[in-house]
Amino acid sequence: MKITVMNRIRILTFVLMGVFPAICWSAQPEIRRDIHFPNLPGYKTLACDFHMHTVFSDGNVWPIVRVNETWRQGLNAIAIADHIEYQPHKSDIPIQYGRSYEVAENAARSHNMLLIRAAEITRDTPPGHFNAIFLNDVKPLVTPEFTDAIKAANEQGAFVFWNHQAWKGEEKGQWLDVHQMLFDKKWFQGMEVANGDEYFPTAHQWCLEKNLTMLGNTDIHEPDLRKESTSQDHRTMTLVFVKEATPAGIKEALLAKRTIVWFKDQLIGREELLRPFFDACIKVSKPNTRSKTSMYVEVRNNCHADICLEPTNLPPVPQPRLLVLPANSTALLRVPITDASKPGVVTCVARNFLIGPDKCLQVTLKVPNPPAPEKKKGK
Ligand SMILES: [Zn+2]
Ligand SMILES: [Zn+2]
């Protein structure tokens, strides 16, 4: 058959339509959507989840999936904490303590995710479940006695925290003699104040009273299908403020209690950390315009969570009672001037910055003074 010019064009078109999309399709990279929380002076902010499960205990995913999904959602560090005492898949997947870490290790390296070796010590409640992270070896924690497992974790220099304190009810999540003994020996250093969709106010209160580190984790068992972390839809996670972004850096920060828990629309933490964090998140501009009675200023929210403010010294009109500053956005605010000789100040309650159960952070937005008008130079 003679190949005419038209036939050549048709053949070429066919090849291009068939082959090029296939090439482009196969070349699609994995996409990560970053989480933007500000750093604090001297510290880098890492988004972490220290509690999740895989098929090596009662989870329903292979360990590499945990790396892929958390990387995609913008996290920086994870710990897979498979149960030591509970392996319902063992007829298909033989018990291998710590194997989930080994399986996920290469994927963590290729995705530049910090992976921490961990396990969940899973005894009846009370005393409840405890995570041990920064382990060297899970096997020494396989002991008949609960306290021996916690002791073995501490002998490896692990950071140990009490999980989901009231998941079987407050009456079973009480602080008992066994907890006091562990606390006195400094054998656990933190508590989950949030686990998945649950917040534990008693755990929050104990962290404040007993000076324990606050943590928030997913305890996820199923695949997480989220493609990104948004203010409205994200994992429960712990923001850790590190001197260096390494597992050792995270451990130092956890022991120093430099954490904020991001749970639903709440940021939960100690006042001494939430206050500088708020100040790092919010930037107030100089007035755009200014009259005798009011000025317009821009309020920038530099963080990944919406911030909800309740002004306490502004007239309700024209401002709404609650000001929601959307994540990574700028809001325009009209600030009344009551005394022109003083700088503009808006006092607020930060409704979603929780410094204690039912206790919100009080904040002040200060409007920077505009530069003094330049004096005209005389001749
Ligand atoms: Zn548990
Ligand atoms: Zn768990």
Structural class: alpha+beta
Bound small molecules, deduplicated: zinc ion
Give the N-terminus to C-terminus distance in angstroms: 94 Å
- Taken together, the total number of domains comes to 2
CATH topology of the largest domain: TIM Barrel
Question: Which features would summarize this protein structure in a list?
Answer:
four-stranded antiparallel beta sheet; 15-stranded mixed beta sheet; TIM Barrel; 8 helices; 2 domains; Immunoglobulin-like; 19 strands; alpha+beta; 24% helix; globular; 379 residues; binds zinc ion
Characterise the protein shown here.
With 379 residues, the chain is of the alpha+beta class. The protein has 2 domains: 44-269, Metal-dependent hydrolases (TIM Barrel, Alpha-Beta Barrel); 282-366, Immunoglobulin-like (Sandwich). The chain contains 8 helices and 19 strands. It has helices at 5-26, 63-72, 99-110, 146-155, 177-184, 201-210, 247-255, 271-281, and strands at 44-49, 77-80, 114-122, 129-133, 159-162, 190-195, 198-199, 213-217, 237-242, 259-263, 266-269, 282-284, 289-290, 294-301, 307-311, 323-325, 329-336, 345-356, 359-366. The strands form 2 sheets. It has a 15-stranded mixed beta sheet that branches. Strands 12, 13, 14 and 17 form a 4-stranded antiparallel beta sheet that branches. Strand 13 and strand 14 (294-301) form a beta hairpin. Bound molecules: zinc ion (2 copies). One zinc ion is lined by residues 120, 122, 129, 163-164. The site of one zinc ion has 5 residues, from strand 3.
